[in-house]
Amino acid sequence: MNHKKFFYYIVALFVCTYSSISQEEINSTKNLWITSVEKNKTNEYSIILNDLIVIKEIKLKKTKIGKREIINLEFPTYISKHGKAYPQIIALNKQLQQRIIKAITTLTPEKSSTKVEPSFTINKFTPYTKATSSLKVFASVVFENSLEIECRVMERNRNAWVVWPARKDQITNKWIPQVAFTSKEYKKKIEQSLLSKYKTSKVEASEE
Fold first, then answer.
1. What is the pTM of this model?
2. Which of 26, 58, 91, 95 is exposed most, by the fewest CB atoms within 10 A?
3. Using N-to-C axis directions, what is the helix angle for 94-106 and 3-28, rounded to 10°?
4. Domain ranges within the chain, ordered by starting residue
5. Are 117 and 53 in contact (CB under 8 A)?
6. Is 118 in contact with 50 (CB distance < 8 Å)?
Protein backbone atom coordinates (compact mmCIF):
# COMPACT_ATOMS: atom_id res chain seq x y z
CA MET A 1 0.00 0.00 0.00
CA ASN A 2 1.52 3.35 -1.07
CA HIS A 3 1.43 6.49 1.10
CA LYS A 4 -1.51 8.05 -0.75
CA LYS A 5 -3.70 4.95 -0.42
CA PHE A 6 -2.73 4.61 3.22
CA PHE A 7 -3.75 8.24 3.86
CA TYR A 8 -7.19 7.70 2.27
CA TYR A 9 -7.59 4.50 4.29
CA ILE A 10 -6.94 6.35 7.56
CA VAL A 11 -9.37 9.16 6.63
CA ALA A 12 -12.08 6.64 5.70
CA LEU A 13 -11.54 4.74 8.96
CA PHE A 14 -11.84 7.97 10.97
CA VAL A 15 -15.06 9.00 9.18
CA CYS A 16 -16.63 5.58 9.72
CA THR A 17 -15.69 5.57 13.41
CA TYR A 18 -17.01 9.10 13.96
CA SER A 19 -20.25 8.29 12.13
CA SER A 20 -20.67 5.14 14.22
CA ILE A 21 -20.21 7.07 17.48
CA SER A 22 -22.58 9.85 16.36
CA GLN A 23 -25.22 7.32 15.31
CA GLU A 24 -24.84 5.52 18.64
CA GLU A 25 -25.47 8.78 20.51
CA ILE A 26 -28.53 9.51 18.36
CA ASN A 27 -29.94 6.02 18.92
CA SER A 28 -29.31 6.19 22.66
CA THR A 29 -31.45 9.32 23.05
CA LYS A 30 -34.18 8.61 20.51
CA ASN A 31 -36.74 7.76 23.22
CA LEU A 32 -35.82 10.67 25.51
CA TRP A 33 -37.56 13.93 24.63
CA ILE A 34 -37.82 17.32 26.34
CA THR A 35 -41.60 17.84 26.50
CA SER A 36 -41.62 20.86 28.81
CA VAL A 37 -39.20 23.63 29.78
CA GLU A 38 -39.79 26.45 32.24
CA LYS A 39 -37.79 29.35 33.65
CA ASN A 40 -38.41 29.50 37.40
CA LYS A 41 -36.13 32.38 38.36
CA THR A 42 -32.97 34.11 37.12
CA ASN A 43 -30.78 31.38 35.62
CA GLU A 44 -32.84 28.53 37.07
CA TYR A 45 -34.88 26.19 34.90
CA SER A 46 -36.88 22.99 35.07
CA ILE A 47 -37.54 20.46 32.32
CA ILE A 48 -39.77 17.44 31.89
CA LEU A 49 -38.66 14.44 29.84
CA ASN A 50 -41.34 12.37 28.07
CA ASP A 51 -43.99 14.00 30.29
CA LEU A 52 -42.66 11.66 33.02
CA ILE A 53 -39.31 12.73 34.51
CA VAL A 54 -39.12 16.18 36.13
CA ILE A 55 -35.71 17.78 36.70
CA LYS A 56 -35.62 21.08 38.57
CA GLU A 57 -33.05 23.74 39.50
CA ILE A 58 -30.97 23.43 36.33
CA LYS A 59 -28.58 26.32 35.72
CA LEU A 60 -26.56 27.48 32.73
CA LYS A 61 -22.87 28.21 33.21
CA LYS A 62 -21.48 30.58 30.58
CA THR A 63 -17.74 30.86 29.97
CA LYS A 64 -16.06 33.20 27.49
CA ILE A 65 -12.98 32.01 25.62
CA GLY A 66 -11.87 34.89 23.44
CA LYS A 67 -14.93 35.84 21.42
CA ARG A 68 -16.57 32.46 21.92
CA GLU A 69 -19.15 31.82 24.63
CA ILE A 70 -19.30 28.26 25.93
CA ILE A 71 -22.54 27.17 27.64
CA ASN A 72 -22.60 24.19 30.01
CA LEU A 73 -25.33 22.72 32.17
CA GLU A 74 -25.21 22.76 35.96
CA PHE A 75 -27.52 20.13 37.41
CA PRO A 76 -28.34 19.94 41.13
CA THR A 77 -25.30 18.94 43.18
CA TYR A 78 -25.08 17.56 46.71
CA ILE A 79 -22.33 19.09 48.86
CA SER A 80 -21.15 16.84 51.70
CA LYS A 81 -20.20 18.03 55.19
CA HIS A 82 -16.58 17.86 54.06
CA GLY A 83 -17.28 20.12 51.09
CA LYS A 84 -17.10 17.43 48.41
CA ALA A 85 -19.47 17.92 45.46
CA TYR A 86 -21.60 15.03 44.15
CA PRO A 87 -23.57 15.75 40.93
CA GLN A 88 -27.09 14.33 41.27
CA ILE A 89 -27.87 14.28 37.54
CA ILE A 90 -25.43 13.65 34.69
CA ALA A 91 -26.05 13.87 30.93
CA LEU A 92 -23.98 10.95 29.66
CA ASN A 93 -23.58 12.13 26.08
CA LYS A 94 -22.98 15.48 24.42
CA GLN A 95 -25.98 15.24 22.16
CA LEU A 96 -28.47 15.15 25.03
CA GLN A 97 -26.61 17.93 26.82
CA GLN A 98 -26.78 20.16 23.73
CA ARG A 99 -30.47 19.39 23.26
CA ILE A 100 -31.23 20.41 26.84
CA ILE A 101 -29.19 23.61 26.44
CA LYS A 102 -31.10 24.45 23.24
CA ALA A 103 -34.48 23.82 24.89
CA ILE A 104 -33.55 26.01 27.86
CA THR A 105 -32.02 28.90 25.90
CA THR A 106 -35.02 29.03 23.54
CA LEU A 107 -37.58 28.03 26.20
CA THR A 108 -38.97 25.64 23.61
CA PRO A 109 -39.69 21.92 24.19
CA GLU A 110 -38.73 19.38 21.53
CA LYS A 111 -42.14 17.74 21.57
CA SER A 112 -45.44 19.00 22.92
CA SER A 113 -46.31 15.63 24.41
CA THR A 114 -45.10 12.02 24.48
CA LYS A 115 -45.47 9.50 27.28
CA VAL A 116 -43.15 6.83 25.93
CA GLU A 117 -41.59 5.32 29.04
CA PRO A 118 -37.79 5.64 28.89
CA SER A 119 -35.92 2.40 29.46
CA PHE A 120 -33.85 2.34 32.65
CA THR A 121 -31.08 0.35 34.27
CA ILE A 122 -29.57 0.44 37.74
CA ASN A 123 -25.95 1.56 37.54
CA LYS A 124 -24.31 2.47 40.84
CA PHE A 125 -25.33 0.39 43.86
CA THR A 126 -22.95 1.00 46.76
CA PRO A 127 -23.91 -0.16 50.28
CA TYR A 128 -23.51 2.28 53.16
CA THR A 129 -22.25 0.25 56.08
CA LYS A 130 -22.88 2.50 59.09
CA ALA A 131 -25.22 0.30 61.13
CA THR A 132 -27.08 3.10 62.94
CA SER A 133 -27.97 5.01 59.77
CA SER A 134 -31.25 4.74 57.85
CA LEU A 135 -29.24 5.19 54.67
CA LYS A 136 -28.43 1.77 53.24
CA VAL A 137 -27.37 2.23 49.59
CA PHE A 138 -26.04 4.96 47.31
CA ALA A 139 -27.54 4.15 43.90
CA SER A 140 -28.09 5.62 40.46
CA VAL A 141 -30.47 4.92 37.59
CA VAL A 142 -29.58 5.44 33.92
CA PHE A 143 -32.39 6.32 31.50
CA GLU A 144 -32.02 5.41 27.81
CA ASN A 145 -28.24 5.07 28.31
CA SER A 146 -28.18 8.88 28.27
CA LEU A 147 -29.16 10.38 31.63
CA GLU A 148 -28.00 9.23 35.07
CA ILE A 149 -29.91 10.21 38.22
CA GLU A 150 -28.60 9.55 41.72
CA CYS A 151 -30.87 8.15 44.45
CA ARG A 152 -30.64 6.44 47.83
CA VAL A 153 -32.19 3.36 49.37
CA MET A 154 -33.28 3.94 52.97
CA GLU A 155 -34.57 1.53 55.62
CA ARG A 156 -36.05 1.96 59.07
CA ASN A 157 -38.00 -0.55 61.16
CA ARG A 158 -37.76 -3.06 58.28
CA ASN A 159 -39.47 -0.62 55.90
CA ALA A 160 -37.36 0.27 52.86
CA TRP A 161 -37.93 3.16 50.45
CA VAL A 162 -36.16 5.20 47.77
CA VAL A 163 -35.16 8.85 48.10
CA TRP A 164 -34.59 11.02 45.02
CA PRO A 165 -32.47 14.21 44.84
CA ALA A 166 -33.76 17.05 47.02
CA ARG A 167 -32.32 19.93 49.01
CA LYS A 168 -33.23 21.26 52.43
CA ASP A 169 -34.58 24.81 52.50
CA GLN A 170 -32.52 26.77 55.03
CA ILE A 171 -35.52 28.88 56.12
CA THR A 172 -38.39 26.39 56.28
CA ASN A 173 -36.26 23.24 56.87
CA LYS A 174 -38.49 21.49 54.33
CA TRP A 175 -37.09 19.25 51.60
CA ILE A 176 -37.52 20.63 48.08
CA PRO A 177 -37.56 17.92 45.37
CA GLN A 178 -35.08 18.37 42.53
CA VAL A 179 -36.21 15.23 40.69
CA ALA A 180 -39.78 13.97 40.51
CA PHE A 181 -42.02 11.72 38.41
CA THR A 182 -45.45 12.62 37.05
CA SER A 183 -46.52 8.96 36.82
CA LYS A 184 -46.90 6.97 40.04
CA GLU A 185 -46.82 3.73 38.03
CA TYR A 186 -43.54 4.56 36.29
CA LYS A 187 -41.95 5.73 39.54
CA LYS A 188 -43.12 2.56 41.29
CA LYS A 189 -41.62 0.40 38.54
CA ILE A 190 -38.20 2.05 38.99
CA GLU A 191 -38.30 1.94 42.78
CA GLN A 192 -39.40 -1.69 42.86
CA SER A 193 -36.32 -2.58 40.79
CA LEU A 194 -34.10 -0.76 43.28
CA LEU A 195 -35.79 -2.28 46.34
CA SER A 196 -35.71 -5.77 44.82
CA LYS A 197 -31.97 -5.42 44.23
CA TYR A 198 -31.55 -4.20 47.81
CA LYS A 199 -33.51 -7.16 49.19
CA THR A 200 -31.41 -9.58 47.14
CA SER A 201 -28.18 -7.97 48.34
CA LYS A 202 -29.33 -8.34 51.98
CA VAL A 203 -30.04 -12.05 51.48
CA GLU A 204 -26.65 -12.59 49.82
CA ALA A 205 -24.88 -10.71 52.62
CA SER A 206 -26.58 -12.83 55.29
CA GLU A 207 -25.49 -16.04 53.54
CA GLU A 208 -21.81 -15.08 53.48
1. 0.83
2. 26
3. 60
4. 34-207
5. no
6. yes
